[in-house]
Amino acid sequence: MDFWLKILFYSSAFIIIWAMIGYPVSLKIIGKLHKTKKLEKNYGHKPSVTVMVVAHNEEKVIMDKLHNIMSLEYPKDLIEYLVSSDNSTDKTNEIVKDFIRRYQEYNIRLFEVKDRKGKTNAQNEAHKTVTTEYLVMTDANSMMEKNAVSELMAAFTSEDIAYVSGRLAIINQNVSDVSNAEANYWDSDLAAREIEGRIQTITAGNGALYACRTKDYNDFNPIQCHDSAMPPYYALQGKRAIANHDAIAYEKAGEVIEDEFGRKVRSNRVLLAQILPDIRILNIFRYKWFTYFYFGHRTCRYLLWISHLIVLVTNILLVQSSIFYMLTLVGQIVFYLLAILKLYMKLNNKYLNMIYYYTVTLAAQWVGVYRVLSGKSKPFWEKAESTR
After folding, report:
1. How far apart are CA 292 and CA 298, in angstroms?
2. Three-state SS at 167
C-alpha cells in the first residue's frame, strides 16, 4: 500500500515542481544553447490586413479602441477595420455606427452577431466576411502600439509560420498586489514564449493581440478560445506559432481578486481538454520540441489542481512513515495557512502575495473543472470592470 502511495506522491510532486521550477529553468538553459536562433523579420512584407475587434457591451472603451486602431501606422489602402459585436445590448453598436459615419475615409465595418455565443463564435462569424490576406485580432480594451500591425506582419517570413502573437503589457501593475502578481506572471510567461517561438513554436498565445493568415483561420468550437486552441492546432499541422514581442498591446489586469479569480475561472472553462488536446502531441519524434514544450508549459500546469490534492492526501496517509513526510505535510499546511492569512489580514508582502496568487490559481482551476464536469462552462462571460 505504501509503495503505491509513494508513487502517487512523488509523481504528483514532480508535476508541480516541473511546472513551476523545472521547466522554466530547463527552458532558460535551452534558450542559451540556441542563442543563434533569432526572430527573423521582413518589414517589406505589407499584405492586406483586417483588424478585427470583438466587443460585447464595451461602451466604456470602444471609442478609445476605435481611435486607437485608426492611429495604426500601416498603408491605408491595405488595412480594413472590423468590429464584431457579440449581441451588444448597451450603446456599443450605436457608438461604432456613429464613428463610421464621422470617419468615412477609413474602411470600418460593424458586424452584428445576433445570438450571443461568446468571443470565438463572434470571430468565426465575422471571419466569413473578411477578404484580406491576413487577420489581426484584438480585444476591445487592449490598446495597440502604432507599429503593432507592421510588427506582426513582419514576422510572417515563411509559409510555415501560421500564427504570430504579440506582447501583452500590463499598465496598472503597481495599482494593487493583484495586478502586480498578474503582471509578474505575464512577464515570466512571455520570457518562456520568446524561447519556445525562436526554437520551434509557442504553446499558447494571448487574446490581446495576434494574427494569422485568413486562409489558415479555423472555426473552433465557441467554448474554446484562440489563446489556447490556435497554437497547438497549427503545430499539429507541422506549422509554427511564434511570438513577436515588439508588437505590443496595453491592457489593465484585474485590480481586485474577484475580477482576477473570475478571469482565471473563465480561462479554465476547457481545462480538462487542454491537458492533452490531441494524443499526437506525445509523438516527440514528429513534433520534436513542441512535445517537450507542451508537456512542461501546458500539461503540467493544467494538472496542478489534482496534483496538489494528491500530494496532500498521500502525504497525510504517509505521515507516519518517516520524518520526511512529517516535514512535507507541515510545509503544505503552512503554505495554505499563509494564503489564508493573506486573504483575511490583507497583508502586503511580496512572498505572501505570490503564495496567495498561486493558491487562487489552484482554486480557479478547481472551479473550472467543476463547471466542465457539471456542464456549466459557458463560451461567454461578464467582463472584469476593473480592467476597463
Report:
1. 10
2. strand
SS percent in the chain: helix, strand, coil, step 5: 55, 15, 30
pLDDT value for 171? 87
Q: Residue 75 has which C-alpha cell?
A: 498603408
State whether the Cα torsion 308-313-316-322 is positive or negative: negative
In angstroms, the CA 101 to CA 200 distance is 45
Gap between the Cα atoms of 358 and 185, Å rounded: 10
CA distance 275 to 295: 9
Determine how many CB atoms are found less than 10 A away from the CB of residue 374: 8
Euclidean distance between CA atoms 126 and 144, whole angstroms: 21
Distances in whole angstroms, Cα of residue 206 to Cα of each of 165, 173, 353, 356, 387: 7, 18, 24, 24, 15
Task: State pLDDT tens for residues 71-109.
Answer: 999 999 999 999 999 999 999 999 999 999 999 989 999
CA distance 19 to 34: 22
Find the DSSP H helices in 200-253.
226-235
SS (H, E, C) 29-90: HHHHHCCCCCCCCCCCCCCCEEEEEEECCCCCCHHHHHHHHHCCCCCHHHEEEEEEEECCCC
pTM for the whole structure: 0.91
Distance CA 117, CA 136 (A): 21
Residue 163 carries which side chain, given as an amino acid letter? Answer: Y
Dig out the grid coordinates for 327 from the structure. Answer: 516535514
